[in-house]
Specification:
mainly alpha, 4 helices, about 10% strand, elongated, disordered C terminus
């Protein structure tokens, strides 16, 4: 029989050390964090983060377009691109409830 997501018992962080939680506690955590309202919130938050990332990309493109091709891009272009990458990474993390449960 193959183990499902709810059957695996990961490590739970407590201060400096870690302890293994029981499968029953893990199932309770999965059920508690998988309600439709929480899923809707996560999806909405993920979409907003992706919208903000697109906006940062647009700002980087607009600022970069104002600079002649032979000139160095201003540092703000790199800043906007870095912000966009960080927003996308956070959106990906939010889309994965397994990672959120392990970091709680």
């Amino acid at each position: 029989m193959e183990a499902t997501f709810a059957d695996t018992a990961p490590l739970k962080r407590q201060g400096e050390g870690t302890v293994r939680i029981s499968a029953a506690e893990w199932r309770e955590i999965v059920m508690r964090t998988s309600s439709p309202r929480i899923d809707e919130f996560r999806q909405g938050l993920r979409l907003e983060l992706l919208r903000l990332a697109r906006h940062e990309d647009d700002l980087a493109a607009a600022e970069g377009a104002e600079v002649p091709y032979w000139a160095t891009c201003p540092p703000s272009v790199l800043g906007h691109r870095t912000a966009a990458a960080a927003l996308r990474a956070e959106a990906d993390r939010i889309a994965s409830p397994e990672l959120e449960l392990l970091s709680a």
